[in-house]
Amino acid sequence: MVLDIVRTLRLPDSEFFAGTQRKTGIAIHHTVGGSAEASFRLWRRDQTNGGRPAMVGTAYLIDHDGTVFEVFDPAAWAYQFGLGWTPSARLAFERRFIGIEIASEGALIEQDGELYCFDRISPRTRKPRDEAFDAERLYRGYRWFDRYEPAQLASLGTLVDELCRRFPIPRRYPQRPFDYYGDALASFDGVIGHAMVRPDKSDPAPDPRLWQILEERAALQPVPVTPPAHRRGPPALTSGQIETLFAQNLRRIDAMAVAAGSLVKALLMELERRGTYLRLDHPEPGAHAIGYELVQGDRKAALRLAGALGFRAATASRLEVRHA
Length: 324
Description:
The chain is built from seven helices and 17 strands. The protein has helices at about 35-45, 85-95, 150-165, 210-220, 240-255, 260-270, 300-310, and strands spanning about 5, 25-30, 60, 70, 95-100, 105-110, 115, 125, 130-140, 140-145, 170-175, 190-195, 220-225, 275-280, 290-295, 315, 320.
């Protein structure tokens, strides 16, 4: 299979770290969103409190039809992991990994026999069961996931094969790809999933097809890696705690005006991708504003992303959405 790389979605040089880095790894993610272009547009809007680009993104996006977009030169880099390691270890890891995002709605929730994406129960977020993957057990708090399209997996396999040929990236991956390894992978060379280094993540989905096709198309081989005996620093939220927090926040979002609640939900999902979690207060019925407290992560990221998403106002304890 000859892979056609599309370069119509390109970040400007000011929104990633240009230059050539030695690449020894590939990291696979999924977007928890709609199309590849939708994720690209969010990256374009993502800024720091000072108005500077947040420098968050991956070199590649794979759309639902298998189209591969190269967002920036894979020899360059942008932040993709959101790790809580020491600055030197975190930067070294970020710089040497090429990121690939698969366009996907990510983890799904189930209620009354129906599946829903984005942790929101609504007719607009209902997911047909034949488009879902059943992990048959809880994985990071979820059993059901948006099923990757065969075209996406085929493109992923070919892309990884080409990148391993172009860069000095070993054709290997941890033999238990759904485990959490944390900083045991700090010096690992090869292909990993985001959830391997973040206990609060569930991407890529625990679908064996993904790793099977990487073995078939990119000749990857599983290798043993010993998980860490303990994590350094304060413990992250557990999958169960995250699930409980999402359910609580969902009930409070549902009390807001529909459009306002949808925007708050979008903010929470983007913060989750960065390891940041908020606990929402009880809003007034039909409200366009809601209080919150930071549970874990970076408060500045919440303020920054609220601005990028078009909130009317965002403070250290309150979010306000513009009236329609």
